[in-house]
Amino acid sequence: MRPFLFFSFLALTAMVHGAEPVSVPPLAFTHRTLANGLDVYAAPDHTTPNVAIHVWYHVGSKDDPAGRSGFAHLFEHIMFKGTRHTKPETMDRLTEDVGGINNAFTADDVTVYHEIVPAHHLERLLWAEADRMAALKVDAHNFQSEREVVKEEYLQSVEAEPYGRFGEDIIKKSFVVHPYQRPTIGTIAELNAATLEDVRAFHNTYYRSDNATLVVVGDFQPAQLDAWVDKYFAPIPRPAGPVPRVTAREPARTREQRCREFYPNVPLPAVAVTYLGPAARSADALALEVAQEMLAGGNSSRLYQRLVYEKQLAQSVEFQADLREDMGLLVFRVVLAHGRSVAQVERALLAEIRRFAARPAGEAEVAKARNRLLTDRLHERETCQGKAAALAQAAVVLGDPRRVDTDLTRLQSVTAADVQRAVRTIFTEQNRLVFEGLPETMKETKR
Question: What is the pTM of this model?
Answer without folding.
Answer: 0.93
